[in-house]
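input
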Amino acid sequence: MKNTLIIIVGVLICLFIFQPTVDADSGQLYKVNVETLTLRDAPNQSATVLGYLKIGAKVTVFLQSDGWGSTYYNGKEAWVSLNMLEEKNGFPDAAVSGESGKGDPQLITEENEEEEPKAETIQQYKDEKLEELDEKEHTTAGITHKDKNLEGQRKQSGEKTLAGYHFIIDPGHGGKDPGAVRSELYEKTITLSTAKKVDELLRDKGASVTLTRTDDTFIPVEERVQLSNSTTADAFISLHYNTFKDQSISGIDTFYNNVDESQQLAVAIQRSLVNHVKFTNRGSKQASYQVLRENKHPALLIELGFISNPEERKLVRTDTYQEKAAKGIVSGLENYFNND
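output
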């Protein structure tokens, strides 16, 4: 009897030791701190991929085991590497609630704000920055924009207002990385089609252009940055479309990292974009995306609308919208680089 009791106690101890830990009934909230986080159907690197989360996404972890955390994605259990997460207790919401009552993380591209910025604040901010543009001589990648040779080249080329400039256009995601997904609309598809429209307009203006991808190919973020840093470029622009759990959230954001080289370019393009497409102005903001912070050139990441918003989703998938967005970007570049 005594031996049996010892065996039972031993089994219970083993179960306690090796049982995956549960943080709490409501789960533990984390934030993705890498550019792209893979969700898998089991806690190992060879398990089937269920989807991806981008930096800044919020994840509720319910179980932890051997460095992996269990969450829910599209109604299914999904596992993520805890090494790729940062604990965030301060978030007001864990994630979107599913039928099971557990969080269902969404493919989001940045830490979106629940409240839209006040219009008067945005306008005041834009006006201040545009005044700075009028007063300051901008120099990028060793090229002074008051350079008389470039000015003469632009005048000789007539409508070739961006002759002599080189831009890198980066269609976000691609291949195995679909980006945001809503109602069979893939972010990777519309970033590529938009980038090609920007490419065409820039070439019409006399600029030289490099696309980081020209088809549905997965290009790691590190390679996109390396491509930019290996060339002489006047600006690097990464194109994205956004998504958020609140379907009413809408509008355009432009992100920069380097205040000295990129902030005023972001203000100019954000202003031009909003004027062309008439979407909500979410402003230009500083962010630490890898394609921005590790880029040697002035670099922007533009979110061209929310595909989680039903009205914007209908628009952004159309050629008409993408052409307007492309014109807005190119017009913003013209305003900035030709601001003599």
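quick obs: The chain has two domains: 2-104, 119-337.
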